[in-house]
Amino acid sequence: MLDHDRHGDSTGIDADAAIVPDLAGGLIDRSIYSDPRIYELELRRIFARAWNFMCHESQIANAGDYFINYIGEDQVVVVRGEDGAVRVLLNTCRHRGNALCRAELGNTKTFVCSYHGWTYGLDGTLIGVPGKANFYRDAIDQAKWGLVQAAKVDHYKGFYFATLDPLAPSLFDYLGDVGRTGMESMLTQGEVVALDGVQKNVIDCNWKIAVDNLFDWYHVRISHNSASRVGFLDQRLMMPMSQMVMLGELGHAIGGPMVSVEKQAQLDALSDEERRALDQLPDAERAKQAPIERRPLRSTAARAAMGPLGVRAMGHPNIFPNLWISTRGMQLSLRLPRGPGRTEIWWFTVLPKSFTEQQRRKARKFVTHAFGPAGLLEQDDGENWSQSTQSSRGVASRRYAHNMQMAMGQDEVLVDPSGQKAIETRVNEHAQRWTYRCWGEWLRARDWPDLLANRSPVPVGRI
Ligand code: FES
Ligand SMILES: [Fe+2]
């Protein structure tokens, strides 16, 4: 299916790799937010190549359970078969391309096309063709007309991903240390279960602007001033002078507040029971004793899984390209591209199975008020992202690069004895620059072997 992209593009897009601007020097050419040729290249060389987040296992717990998602602009159905296996099928009928499955999620025995009635099994096999004998005269080989399947499907501790590219590395290797640390930040209280419903919302912005914002702790005090004034944001969240950035292979990163070594040592001295008891105190009470903010304190097991630096990183992980893990609310957000100037924002919420009803209620209240269509914060952000995107279309304004130079050349990536690497600093733009640098490498690489051979190693030392 993706042969053209592995062996040179028949569309001339390969020649267009030359249009990918050099983003060195912390200057971001605005064409990357508006040029349709760049967007097309992103669909082929990033989304069709990457491991894309699909859903949590609790959303497809039983045989026949399905969930609709996207890989770039390809709609897919994630479905659990009678054999228990999870498959990811392109949601497009092989006859005339109609979308087969129209509900966002549900349970079914078969997928029946609403156009001419071709019927597929949960494994994608074409099991029924109306008029097969009379109209086709039995001259159709059903075995050849099953649904197209993703090349690989796998999960990291219950979080399912899929890739369309058979040459992609394993999900475990793809995530690498930083990606896995990011995923582990959802599991700090043990097993989780997804809340019903995914909040969905379209914003008129380029998907990358929504992605680079998740590392942006510079805007919080300004953009979210009103949310802060009504008491919705914990001031300790800001911590502009105490930030940690972890840069990961292939463009994954974590950036934001950190727990100091001293504070972490105090936390480590607590038992899991003592941490849980602290978490359940009323906010004001807890604030006096717990560091940082209202998020659940990380367990002993989480510390082992996240590593000594990862456990202190309280910032936002991004699994390249477009999965933001919002650890405060225990949410995962996809920034799904819908053209250069539109992005569909999805919010999944997963909560620990061990949460009390009171904790669940509190979490539900937070997630519906922070992000998504009714979220205070997303309204602030979305407006900025739209305007930044809009200005990249102006003939004059698009000539002027964005400035992404904050703290460039000013910090050090240190290596812990465990092998984990991090920058301990203040508010900065390291993770944004890393994301765009890797983005350029993905777009220039002709295929996975090329990308793996030529990507930048995670930097160490001065950055
Ligand atoms: S398009 Fe699906 S049966 Fe014709
Ligand atoms: Fe924001």
What does this structure look like?
The protein has 463 residues and is an alpha+beta fold. The chain has 14 helices and 23 strands. A hairpin with a 5-residue loop joins strand 18 and strand 19. The two termini are 39 Å apart. The chain has helices at 3-6, 36-47, 171-184, 207-212, 220-223, 225-229, 261-268, 272-279, 283-289, 300-310, 357-370, 376-391, 430-444, 448-454; strands spanning 27-28, 52-56, 65-71, 74-80, 86-90, 105-107, 110-112, 119-121, 126-128, 152-156, 159-163, 192-194, 199-203, 243-247, 253-257, 316-319, 323-326, 331-337, 343-352, 402-403, 412-415, 421-425, 461-462. The model is unreliable at 1-10 (pLDDT under 50). The chain folds into two domains: 52-155, 3-layer Sandwich (Rieske Iron-sulfur Protein), CATH 2.102.10.10; 177-462, Naphthalene 1,2-dioxygenase Alpha Subunit, Chain A, domain 1 (Alpha-Beta Complex). Strands 12, 13, 14, 15, 16, 17, 18, 19, 21, 22 and 23 form an eleven-stranded antiparallel beta sheet that branches. Strands 5-4-3-6 form a four-stranded antiparallel beta sheet, with no helix packed on it. The structure holds FE2/S2 (inorganic) cluster (FES) and fe (ii) ion.
